[in-house]
Predict the structure.
Amino acid sequence: MCRWCQRPLPAAAETGRPRRYCRQSCRQQAYLARTLADAHGLADDQLVVDRRQLEAAQDRLALLRHALDDLERERAGGALEDLAGAFAWLHAHAVEVAALRLEPAQVAPGAGAQPAPGPETTTSSGRSASPTST
C-alpha cells in the first residue's frame, strides 16, 4: 500500500528497495508533509491540514456513520425494499468518503511555524480563536 494515498503499489521490481509510494506525486506530498511537520515541531506521524478540509472529512464520516446505523436498523427490520434503499444511501456516502483526500496545508516560504490564514485558527493552548476576537 502507498504510504500516502493507501492505493495498492505496482508490482515490485526484482532489484532495489521496495517502493513506498505508488506515484511521484505521492512521494512529493509525503515529503511536503514531513517538511511541514518539521517546521511546526510535529512528529513524523502528525500532519497539519486546513480546518475546512478536516471539517469536511468529519462531516462525511458522520454521514457514513448515520448511513451504517440506518442500514443496520433496516437489516433488523427485514423489509427488503427498505434495505435496498438504505444500501443505496450507504453506497452514495461511502463513495464520497472513499474519494476523500486530506492534503498538507500549504505554508508560504519564510512563514515558518505561523498558522495559515483562515476564518479561524487554533491558539498554542489549543483553544479556537476567531480573527475578530481580541
The CA atoms of residues 74 and 114 lie 49 Å apart.
